[in-house]
Amino acid sequence: MAFKVIEIKKSVLDCNDRDAEALRQELKAKGVFLLNLMSSPGSGKTTTLMGTIPALVQRGWRVGVMEADIDSDVDAHTISATGARVIQLHTGGMCHLDAAMTRQGLEALGTDELDIVILENVGNLVCPAEFDTGAAKNAMILSVPEGDDKPLKYPLMFSVCHALLVNKIDTLPVFDFDLAAVEQRARQRNPQLKMFPVSARTGEGMEAWVGWLDRQIRAWKEQ
Amino acid sequence: MAFKVIEIKKSVLDCNDRDAEALRQELKAKGVFLLNLMSSPGSGKTTTLMGTIPALVQRGWRVGVMEADIDSDVDAHTISATGARVIQLHTGGMCHLDAAMTRQGLEALGTDELDIVILENVGNLVCPAEFDTGAAKNAMILSVPEGDDKPLKYPLMFSVCHALLVNKIDTLPVFDFDLAAVEQRARQRNPQLKMFPVSARTGEGMEAWVGWLDRQIRAWKEQ
Questions:
Q1: Cβ-defined contact of B153 to A69 (cutoff 8 Å)
Q2: In what order do the strands lie in the sheet with A194-197?
Q3: ipTM of the complex
């Protein structure tokens, strides 16, 4: 090894877990499924939602969306075209949402007459993974142009997610990206992880993802 | 507007600025130029450095690199092939580097007989922008697949940088990406920003970027 490795220590302040669990139980009692969707900036969260929401509506689910962003409203504008109930959360520079912030958002959105609320978290592969939002399930998107080494570099994100969408597979011919390597690296951290190769742009693979999500909502409401 | 906008408040703890300024002055006195390189995960920081380092060495500069990552060593392994003095910083889950962490890294790397140290920050468009590392200059990479709306969504990052590399321009035919729109949106936040469209993969545009960096190092050492 031609270089030294330095471990910089982190100060941990974690009072979030109890809040998240309480919120999850409240949502469970109301029959509201909260999906926490995470990814890097620009991996296609909003485009994926534009394909996911109509498919959920078609299956009879009533959908709400919370768009978390540092500052802009561009994603909420885009999503509002689907007819879903949408709210924009401005985090004021914050890099993630915690359970208390998610609760603020849900109160402002209103969960009455909703079956699923999708939280589009801040575009960030690091911090959002550290904070349980109270979601029933976590999903993440990795897009092909980002590279197949990401499970090695952001292991916590891959560990805390139940579903991994590998997006922009229509660009596989353009990039040096090994889908099997991603699967193997991600499964090493998280053997239960469901992987869905998709192209939100072309619609390829979206049915498998929506089918999985549909089953999760159903199970959440039935249990 | 079909949705509400909620401002979530942030708690600010900022004791970093003095540390950063002190570090910058120490580096100035030693004639060491520190470049803080930031971007999303997968935008091509390491590949860009693989093209940048040999070009700097060719111009006579002695180069050191600090690779900050949550957990893995893959980037330091890659960079060590250039022959540059390399160190891997593990942030233990932290999403950014501050001035104190940067100082730890520089002490471990050793700055004697170096003209430029490049800090490859954690892949993240949010948190690293909030922490002055003590660098002489900040640069960021936005890659074409991430989309041209990023200056709207991550305004602070575009504000604190002196140079913007728009990477992966060889994939412009594949993505719906408006280079002029990025420039206009970024300049709105930061009129002084220098923009360099590049492809680290093909080498296109890299000369202009290295030329700019060369002038910055020269000015830093001469002043």
A1: yes
A2: A194-197, A163-167, A137-143, A33-39, A116-120, A63-69, A85-90, B4-7
A3: 0.77
- For chain A, give the percent of residues with pLDDT over 70: 94
Shortest CA distance from A101: residue in chain B: B8
- The per-residue pLDDT for range B184-204, each reduced to its tens digit, is 999 999 999 999 999 999 999
Domains of chain B: which residue ranges? 17-222
Handedness of CA A208, A214, A216, A222 (dihedral sign): negative
Q: Contacts of residue B123 in chain A, CB cutoff 8 Å?
A: 40, 125-126, 153-154
Q: Do A6 and B86 touch (CB under 8 A)?
A: no
For A105-154, the pLDDT digits (tens) are 999 999 999 999 999 999 999 999 999 999 999 999 999 999 999 999 99
**Size of chain A in residues:** 223
Distance of alpha carbon B116 from alpha carbon B212, whole angstroms: 14
Domain A18-218 has CATH 2.60.40.1930: no
Among the partner residues B3, B127, B153, nearest to A72 by beta-carbon distance: B153
Contact A123 B122 (CB under 8 A): no
Architecture per CATH, domain B17-222, reads as 3-Layer(aba) Sandwich (3.40)
Do the strands A116-120 and B33-39 form a parallel or antiparallel pair, or are they unpaired? Answer: unpaired
